[in-house]
Amino acid sequence: MSARINLLPHREERRKRARQHFYILSGGTAIIGLLIIGAMHTYVANQIDVQEDRNRFLKAEITKLDKEIAEINDLKNQIQALLARKNIIETLQADRAQTVHLLDELAKQTPDGIYLRTVSQKAQSLNIVGLAQSNAMVSTLMRNIEASKHLTKPELIEVKAVNVEKKRLSEFNLNLSLKREAPKAPPKPEPKPAAKKG
Are 114 and 131 in contact (CB under 8 A)? Predict the structure, then answer.
């Protein structure tokens, strides 16, 4: 006679174990997933913090460099201003003796019979208005100016006849230029004699 075996409880037990196994695996997978997500989140947060620290450091360094660049630009502006002042002083030094040379040269180059009424200067240009006993004397004055060390480029604007104290004279108007002297280079120091070997 064959024995009857009821497999229902056994199958039910198997299903129960399979469900428990599934829940355990699902729970384990979820926990592992959460752990991985948490670890990734922590890693990314740490990387963001590190990058933010680097950014803050770079911003601080950029701010320092900007201040240094501003200081360098200020120094450049000061240097330019000092060089401009130096050039002005050198120009004044060069022009200081020019008035003396001008008056001395005009006195030397003006022939007898010419009387200067006005001498006006604008930068390197001069205008002379004067009286001459003849037109030939004006020509002589222009030749003398051309040969001068300090005067150059005489240009006659006009000559007209005028009566001064019942004398017939020629009134002339003349433009000319000053020659600018090249600034003298500072003297070079003399080389020291080589020491004798003893």
Answer: yes
